Amino acid sequence: MKKGINISSYYIFLVMFLLLPSATFAYELPDTGQTTSYTDTFGEDSDYTINPQSYTLNSDGTTTDNVTGLIWQSSDDDQTYNWYEASGTPHETYNPGGTIDVCGNLGLAGYDDWRLPTEIELLGIVNHDLYDPAIDQTYFPGTNSSNFGSADGYYWSSTSAVHFYAGYQGGDVKSNYYTVRCVRGEQTNHSFIDNGDGTETDVLTELTWQQEDDILTGNCDRTLFKTWEEAIQYCEDLELPVGQSDWRLPNIKELFTKKEYLRCNFWSSTSYALSPGAAWLLLGNTLDTFSKSGEIRPPYIGALCVRGGQPDSSFSLTINEPTGGTVYGPGICCGTACEGADADCLEVYSYGEEITLSVEPDNGWKFDYWDDGIATDTNESLNIFVVGEKTITANFTYVSPGEIVDIYSTPFGSFSINYDADFTSGGGYHWVYSDYSIYKIDGSNIVLFNTPSITLAGITWKDNSLWGITRDGFLHEFNMSSGEILQTLSTGLSETGGLEWDGNNFITVSDYRGWNQDHPVERPHGDLQYLLDRSRTVDSGQAHKRDRRRIHAG
Questions:
Q1: 210 with 199: CB under 8 angstroms?
Q2: What does pTM read for this prediction?
Q3: Average pLDDT for residues 114-121, to the nearest whole number?
Q4: I need a labelling partner for 131 at 20 to 30 A (CA). Which of 108, 148, 369, 466 fits?
Q5: Residue 148: which residues within 8 A CB-CB, separation 6 or more?
Q6: What is the C-alpha separation between 199 and 48, in angstroms, rounded?
Q7: For 159-199, what is each residue's pLDDT tens digit?
Q8: Which of 291, 307, 323 finishes a domain?
Q9: Which stretches does DSSP call E strand in 427-484?
Q10: Cβ atoms of 128 and 168 closer than 8 Å
């Protein structure tokens, strides 16, 4: 049930870079992704959104977790391996000499520090609002998710495996053959400090936990037992020590960090999306699900409460002062255009804030890429989800005179180019006239717009319409729905070539030689000034002389 204000709610967008937390800040454990409500009792997983999942699908075959900073292999190699091969561990039968090391030998995106993820890291990308597969395939495409009877849904971790049909952890027979998804980034470990008041604190995440001994009167027996909703309510009502009342039932990812430190079985606040009458729990040191009503018989399931998870409120972003251009952003102006008092290469932002950086190269320079020390990106606009301190560099390159700056290829489709080809942009599209046809390019497709019955010598965009000119000097406006010609205007020119709209007039050139009817002076063939002088202003389809002789729209 949703009520009150979430302990930490942020809206997340696609980003290209992560501001990683430094060593002085708590490790952010990704949220479960569960947003569906399954009870009217406040305190279930969906009532608390802490460190919401956020990913960036990079163009180099990797996916960045914007919460943890880990960089993942986006898609597996569609092969299976035993654990010894996956981890590069020698075994006389299953990996003689350790010659196979799936992650250790991976060179994806030019990196050589790939490794098998830990159980906690691999479970961190599970989305418990989903199943078959229990992961966001936008960022992890092609994830295997065959049902539990098949090994196809298992992915190896450094100690066991996780099944991505629903997010189960297990599969610890190391001779079995499972899929591998590698990761790179700092490997973390959890440790706990006894606070001396019935609580302990995870040094890594800074979450504070109720100690198991605080709730036990003996062994893990029926005195521990609670139904799932009773466990939720117990934590919502807990005051420990007296006056400290912001306790809650942990979600399954939080609870799993305690697997090596608990003796009994405990509920999580996370429902089992595949069968909502059940909830996730930690059964010994294994993830499992059980009916929410529970049963007063083994396994007895109790409640262990947690508090915290809210991040520090703000972090600074530093831009290394660039050479060859300027970086702009909210409160940031760093580079050539912002010298002196206007320069600002550092700004402080709130946790969870999304900011956009942009670049402006100096004359004679071009933008190359962003670099945050972990990954690079070549998009001129960079979106950042703020979760910690970070320094970013914008790299520019000097362009020698006459050097080609960039070459762009059309993404899909093809057409032939002939000597009459022309190009313009407008209305959110690129337009190409070639081989007697007009093509519309929308960034992902090339579509034939029209094959007019006339031969064009140039096209341009004016206001909300596409216009073309024929070699005999006639202007044509095209219907943007049907592609048919709406109107035709005469310029009085001939042998025209090329067409532009400058905001007030159409501009073309003409290879026409002849006599001016009022001033019979023959001009040299091919003289540009003559071509411009010989242009006409078009008004309601009639040609008139003008002192400024560009072609008016009429």
A1: yes
A2: 0.56
A3: 96
A4: 108
A5: 163, 165, 166, 168
A6: 21
A7: 999 999 999 988 779 999 999 999 999 988 888 988 888 89
A8: 307
A9: 429-434, 437-441, 446-450, 456-462, 465-470, 474-478
A10: no
Cβ contacts of residue 296 below 8 Å, gap of 6+? 222, 225
Please tell me whether residues 301 and 323 are part of one structural domain: no
With contact defined as beta carbons under 8 Å apart, do 485 and 501 qualify? no
Q: Which residues of 342-377 are buried (b: 16+ CB within 10 A; e: fewer)?
A: eeebebebebbbbbebebbbbeebbbbbbbbebbbb
Per-residue model confidence (pLDDT) at position 218: 63
Domain match, 495 and 374 both: no
What tokens does 487 get? 């109107």
Nearest by Cα to 269 from 34, 97, 435, 7: 34
Q: Hey, how many other C-beta atoms are within 10 angstroms of the C-beta on 391?
A: 15
**How many Å apart are CA 447 and CA 508, to the nearest integer?**
27
| Helix (H/G/I), strand (E/B), else coil: 531 | helix
- Measured at the CA of 342, the angle between CA 341 and CA 344, to 5 degrees, comes to 100
* Strand 17-18 to 382-385 pairing: parallel
- List the structure tokens of 273: 């999306």
387 has a pLDDT exceeding 80: no
HSE-CB of 61 using CA atoms within 13 angstroms: 13
> Do residues 344 and 303 both lie within one domain?
no
Q: Is 96 helix (H, G, I), strand (E, B) or coil?
A: helix
Q: Are residues 303 and 374 in the same domain?
A: no
Q: Which residues of 301-311 are buried (b: 16+ CB within 10 A; e: fewer)?
A: bbbbbbbbbeb
User: Which residue range(s) make up the domain with 486?
Assistant: 422-552
Query: Quick check: is 360 in a domain?
Result: yes
Q: State the DSSP code for 250.
A: P
d(CA 67, CA 120): 14
The domain tally of the chain equals 3
What's the rounded Cα separation, in Å, for the pair 431 and 440? 5
pLDDT tens digits for range 238-286: 999 888 888 999 999 999 999 988 888 999 999 999 999 999 999 888 8
Q: What does the DSSP 8-state code read for residue 176?
A: S
Rounded to 10 degrees, what is the CA torsion of 173, 178, 179, 183? 10
Helices (H) and strands (E) in the chain, counts: 6, 38
Nearest residue to 253 (alpha-carbon basis) of 31, 438, 54, 465: 31
Q: What is the CATH number of the domain that holds 334?
A: 2.60.40
- Using the structure block, give the residue that is written with the tokens 């042998």: 495
Residues 272 and 377 in one domain: no
